[in-house]
Amino acid sequence: MTRPLVAIEGLSKTFPGLQALQDVGFAAQPGEIVALVGQNGSGKSTLVKILAGVEAPDPGARVDVAGTVHVIHQDLGLIPQLNTVENLDLGLRHGLGAALPTRRREEAEHARALLRQYDAAFDVTVPVGQLTPAERTIVAIARALDGWERAKGLLILDEPTAALHSDEVGRLFTAVRRAAAAGAAVIFVSHRLDEVLDLADRVVVLRDGRLVSDAPVAALDHAELVRLIVGAAPQHAAPREPCGPGAVALQVRGLRGGRVRDFQLDLCAGEVVGVSGILGSGREHVGALLFGALPRAGGDVAIGGSTLAGGDPRAAIGAGVAYVPGDRHADGAVMTMLVRENVTLPNLRRLRRRAGRLDGRAERQEVVGWLERIALRPADPERPLELFSGGNQQKVVLAKWLRNDPRVLLLDEPTQGVDVGAKAAVYALVRDAAARGAAVLMASSDTAELASVCDRVLVMRDGTVSADVRGAHLTEERLVIEGLALATTNGDPCHD
Ligand SMILES: Nc1ncnc2c1ncn2[C@@H]1O[C@H](COP(=O)(O)OP(=O)(O)OP(=O)(O)O)[C@@H](O)[C@H]1O
Ligand SMILES: [Mg+2]
Fold this sequence. Notes:
Rossmann fold, 16 helices, globular, binds magnesium ion, binds adenosine-5'-triphosphate, 2 domains, 6-stranded mixed beta sheet, alpha/beta, 19 strands
């Protein structure tokens, strides 16, 4: 047996009042792809941060890593103010002549070439904060995976696929397999269990900070993996009740802006409609455009029959629109504030008593109810949001907007980073909002999710709606086929 690239023994990590990891041990050989899975808050990112040297373990642990460590952190670790070229830090910048225009052109060209490996083409000179979550992910991937033919070591990917569509995932996996074949050890964190079974050689399962299983992938299947992660029989997604659509709550005609060239929709109260499509299809911009977070270049939007102006989130909120963005760090939440404050932030009015003072007890009671519904871990409303795991942060953002009983609910990647157990809770909340009369539009790169939660799904291609998939046609396979324009027959694309 070759010497392992990574060897961990007796690894524990204690945060004030919380044990994130307890006596964890495993090893990874050169060329091996090890998946690390577990529920939100089970300790995966903490383990990643310790391997990356960002966090120190409790005394007594043995953590050996031979060679260099490259990490794609769950929050990507990019600097939003810098552009793609600068974030890639291609190393051409140093020394004399770094500021020369020719040098800058060279760097931009090199960056574009790197992105082309992932079939991505976007402006490499705008700050990455202005890119979509999927585009940012590709920047982080390109950076971490550049040069693995030369350097052996440990490659760690903490939920790299959360914002990616299946064909982008395919290209990432090709690059990861190439790195492993060249002798890297890979640790891959994901909540998408099909990906885990597809990519990994071995799967390590954490539950509440303890290692509960370390097994070759051949010994596992989807059901067994779910059982190991959840530690009990899994919940199933909420059954989809056919909703007799009420009145049209959101009408959209000829919407243009960002990657969207022409988008139409009649969304009824009580309906859950999905938006699918690969990166660049426009899928990723529809929600922000409708909400006004992205400027509108043209088209008409009406809420309950009244015209809604573009580029004005305040007017949208006033008309009863709620928007849960895909990027919780950028605009979904205030990380330094408590969970309780984040949940009640958008609507404190309801909790004000006559003199305008806040009713603290009512607030706490209501928040505790929400924390149960979203299965927050730990269920502590008085903890700052930044101390929660990524998936738990996303659930808090969702609760914050659902609490307002919106007339129109716009969701971007609502379960990004949410674990298999809590996903069911999120789906139930979404269906529940629709049952109470909300019109829900949900854009997602997760085709399985769309197929299981939505009443119908609009597939976008090249900025326009290319298919409206519903009824018996609404399967994950169909969405992938339509999104990639692989359809050999016309299916039933019924445009509005
Ligand atoms: N700096 C910190 N201070 C206090 N507690 C923390 C800190 N970082 C993480 N934790 C806690 O440690 C636990 C493990 O968090 P971690 O981020 O490792 O979970 P995870 O498995 O990556 O979850 P997810 O799937 O949601 O990303 C959580 O309960 C989290 O709240
Ligand atoms: Mg994590």
